[in-house]
Automatic annotation (TrEMBL):
It comes from Oryza sativa subsp. indica (Rice). SUPFAM superfamilies: L domain-like. This is Uncharacterized protein. Transmembrane segments: none annotated. It is found in: Cell envelope. InterPro entries: Leu-rich_rpt, LRR_dom_sf, PGIP. Signal peptide: none annotated. Pfam families: LRR_1, LRR_6, LRR_8.
Amino acid sequence: MSGPIPPSFANLSLLEDLDITGTSISGPVPASYLAGATNLRTLVIADSRLAGPIPPSLAGDHPNLRYLDLSGNFLTGAIPPGLVHGSFRFLILSHNQLTGEIPRCYGDVDTVDLSHNRLTGDPSPHLFGIAAPAAKIDLSWNELAFDMTGVRFPHHLRYLDLSHNRITGKVAKSLMDVRLEHLNVSDNELCGEIPAGRFMAAHGADCYARNRCLCGAPLPPCCDGGL
């Protein structure tokens, strides 16, 4: 399949799941053609040639949408506020050219992958926190800038990748209480002693590489007891 999505898609009013990954589909996100598919639960148009912004109407037209994957395209502009509503579980917009700050509302989302974009700002007040629902968060390879020191991560978080950003401060002590299967905060501007104890021993030196001045296990010891 190549070229824009055909207008005939507007006739698929009973459509619940659409997955057209790895094609040569081009043009804008086909929100208007899918507006009649109010029962749509899954929309995957990944590794294709979609371009332009994400339509703000995408979520409003599909109240049952739970899985959105538009990764690997050429999407630009900001992520629309309200894109993620209460029923959302998976938001995957990685490997695009999205800019601006990450919207505040994330409902009950389980997986957020916004890696490899040009996103800015501080997502910590609304994506992190003890009550935050997400189990997987990948925000790597963006331009996010915030102080990590006092961020509280939810105990049920299992995957966290914040590498290749502009994050400052210290590695958050709250990570000691999170049983992460994957952690990567490398290539940031973090400094000070890495918290020790509980679940921190599971993470190797690569997780912390190429920061400003991190020290302590699994990196070399701090010369003065930490900064």
